[in-house]
Amino acid sequence: MDGRTSLGPSHIYEAGLGRNPANYAPLTPLGFLERTAAVFPDHPAVVYGAQRRSYAEFYARSRRLAAALSARGIGLGDTVSAMLPNVPAMLEAHYGVPMIGAVLNALNIRLDAESIAFMLQHCEAKVLLTDREFSGVIAKALTQLERKPLVIDVDDPAATGERVGAIEYEAFLAGGDPDFPWSPPADEWQAISVNYTSGTTGNPKGVVYPHRGTYLNALGNAAAWAMPHHPVYLWTLPMFHCNGWCFTWTVTAYAGTHVCLRRVEPRPVFEAIARERVTHMCGAPIVMNMLVNAKAADRSALPHRVQVMTAGSAPPAAVIEAMEAQGFDVTHVYGLTEVLGPNVICAWHQEWDARPSAERAGLKARQGVRYPVEEGLTVADPETMAPVPADGTTMGEVMMRGNVMMKGYLKNPTATDAAFKHGWFHTGDLAVMHPDGYIELKDRSKDIIISGGENISTIEVESVLYRHPAILEAAVVARPDAKWGETPCAFVTLKDGAQASADDIIGYCRDNLAHFKAPRAVVFGPLPKTSTGKIQKFTLRDRAKALS
To answer: I need a surface site. Which of 124, 210, 351, 445 has the fewest CB within 10 A?
Structure first.
């Protein structure tokens, strides 16, 4: 070894062997739609109630969107936001927006106006696609913006609410060319989307995805899950979650059928599975718990075993066992917004099939091993970077590295540098490494609460509590919840002479936060503190668990 890390241009394996258009193209998931539309033009691409569109139609509509946006001056590096449920327009946005080099910002439809306004302003959105159902929160958010985007209403007949935009989506598409000559990115490191995540600081951070990473993770999903060709995929996972964990592109790459679902409720889920013969679906443990506990009147017989991928808060083994008993095969994955959704999977060993059902469920509750497209996964001391022993007991921080990773946080180099310290992405999640190399989460160093698959920042909730006139001190921790996985539990100390009931405080939070972020329980009394005055949240977490 002479220490060289690359060959010189005159080396025999470099001279005359450079990149050119014949042997190199930037990776992008946009090509998946072009190919599938060419190979399977008549195959069903998108199903939404009685509405059915082929891949030829899906491709043409996406190109119309690209053309119409381009005609409005939208192009390279511009942001297009979308406040949409799992409807066809959201799928089309995942292709039409980046076809012109623009960046898609899929907004969490459960957020409040203040959060939406912050995101629209922070990512400098020039266009906003919005469903009528969210017209109230959008109208309020728009009043807080100095520069307002062009607002386009998606007028879904299933929605209620007033239109707030300048033009309706179908009319907007009608002005676009279905043969629009879109171009792939010149550089695969170019941004394709920005997704906001709630951190432990006040404002959410914009996580920027590159074309390269989304291409690889889209294929990684299929490879890790052994997804067959022509899957029928039910959209029970919000497409605003890490761009649907990149399945917005995975399903298209495998010429699958996207079955859109506006609301995730037991009856429409079971009906869609039976009617469309759904083969695959994803969702947080709350979705599994909802299906397990569905009333008999809301159920339909499964046409076959259905593959379910779950992530978020760790699914209880009992829920996994109940799902499998009812005809679902559960695959547990793990990831974060920063790593483009899941990139760790509880890869299954056939010999585990012979174990008792409870033991199998326990094995499936572990987070697992890295995707085939991920380069590194470790559990280590965050300061020394020394890996923990694979003893299933010693905790360390989960860290990742590789190609399925964010570019960084938008306009936040300090947070980006901290996240990538020592050349690894620091997740902030604490886990153990088992002797077989599978990781298992044990705690969250960031104090994030995951409720129904949604991240809730305890600091954000605490900041609202501290604004209450009767509250002297407040701390928020996760409380286990059978339905949501976790919900916020507030511990508060009232000011001398002040009075407030739990209902008063919860109502105040609901008036000042998205409702799902408001505490479901309030405990009154002095807060436990260290000698330096720091609130002992680990003690409060134990108390919250005891309330369950």
So the answer is: 351
What mean pLDDT do residues 305-322 have?
82
Provide the 3-class DSSP secondary structure of residue 79: strand
Q: Rg of the chain over CA atoms, in angstroms?
A: 24
pLDDT value at residue 87: 98
Domain count, the chain: 2
- For 515, counting Cβ atoms within 10 Å of its Cβ (0-12 exposed, 13-18 middle, 19+ buried), the class is exposed
Taking the C-alpha atoms of residue 402 and residue 363, their distance in angstroms, rounded to an integer, is 26
Q: Which of 263, 297, 324 marks a domain boundary?
A: 263
Tens digits of residue pLDDT in 251-275? 999 999 999 999 999 999 999 999 9
Q: How many CB atoms neighbour CB 414 within 10 A?
A: 8
CB atoms within 10 A of CB 342: 30
In a domain, 34, yes or no: yes
For residue 83, the cross-strand partners are: 130
Distance in angstroms (rounded) separating the CA atoms of residues 440 and 432: 5
Instruction: Pick the more confident residue, 454 or 68.
Output: 68
Please give the distance of CA 452 from its chain centroid, rounded to a whole number: 12
Burial (Cβ within 10 Å: 0-12, 13-18, ≥19) of residue 438:
buried
Check if the beta carbon of residue 523 is closer than 8 Å to that of residue 547: yes
Whether 532 shows a pLDDT value over 90: the answer reads no
For residue 119, the domain's CATH number is 3.40.50.12780
Distance between CA atoms of 507 and 519, rounded to whole angstroms? 9
Q: Which of 285, 149, 281 is nearest to 225 (CA)?
A: 281
Cα–Cα distance measured from residue 378 to residue 167, given in angstroms and rounded to the nearest whole number: 49
Distance CA 81, CA 145 (A): 14
3-class SS at 412?
coil
Enumerate the β-bridge partners of residue 54: 44
Nearest Cα residue to 37 out of 55, 61, 21: 55
**Alpha-carbon separation of residue 430 from 161, 282, 371, 535 (angstroms):** 43, 24, 19, 20
Rounded CA separation 428/188 (Å): 28
CA nearest neighbour of 363 among 422, 395, 317, 311: 317
Distance CA 76, CA 516 (A): 35
Out of 263, 281, 316, a domain closes at: 263
Any domain includes 408: no
In sequence order, what E strands does 178-246 have? 191-197, 205-210, 232-234
Among candidate residues 266, 273, 267, the one with its CA nearest the CA of residue 231: 273
The model's pTM is 0.86
Does the pLDDT value for residue 530 go beyond 70? no
What is the span of the domain harbouring residue 69?
A: 24-263
How much of the chain, in percent, has pLDDT values that exceed 90? 77
